[in-house]
């Protein structure tokens, strides 16, 4: 019983990490119709900014309020980079899909190279509060506090995103734009501001994933964002493009499947099962769990 509890909660922790990356990715594609392959860079920026702030920013540190301040700095850095990418590189390329892919892939590669040139290619130990390195007994299982932290953060981000999308003016514009961007434009609403805001939200969420992922893994490396981005794309496709709730459902399915299969099967079998799940969803429900079928 304790093994099932441990696998479930650690799987949910992994799912929370995937959701934090996938939520912004889903909104960006749903509204702006941009396949942002540089989204993993936002995660790396948040992780390295948090790592740097914990050791250099006045008042920040690896414990207590200092750690919260370091994470806030990392999240802000991710949001700023997201906005800058949209304004400088993506805005001139809307409706030019091939150019978007080339630019975002190139930016991702350049960003990783820049991080490697600045701080090296080897993983660096991540500053973590002492309590995140401990475990909490849950129904006989000793669950890492870092996983519990990820779950709580993902729940708060999901609630904040849903509240923003449902009860704010810009949230309503984003929801309407995901459903029918042409209609929103015809009503005289400047969706370009919403595009920039969505990139900022996506960058902030990915940066938070980078900071808490550093706590979860205990280290940070330039390629960390790229490896997580693969599973984030899978989560977005399974959940349905543009659906935050769908991304949450899909992240839970992917995280639990990966964790259980890797434990009871051979190493790497969980990744294969995740790809198989993606194939099944694409065959049976191409629009995803919470997506809407395309109309002609």
Write up what this structure looks like:
By secondary structure, the chain is mainly α. The chain has one domain (2-223). It has helices spanning 2-32, 39-56, 64-90, 97-119, 145-167, 169-179, 181-186, 191-217, 224-239, 244-264, 269-284; strands at 124-125, 135-138, 141-144, 219-220. Helix 1 (2-32) runs parallel beside helix 5 (145-167), helix 5 (145-167) packs antiparallel against helix 8 (191-217) and helix 6 (169-179) packs across helix 8 (191-217). The relative contact order is 0.20. It is a multi-pass membrane protein. The chain crosses the membrane at residues 6-27, 34-53, 65-89, 101-121, 147-165, 194-217, 229-256, 263-284. This is Branched-chain amino acid ABC transporter permease. Keywords: Amino-acid transport, Cell membrane, Membrane, Transmembrane, Transmembrane helix, Transport.
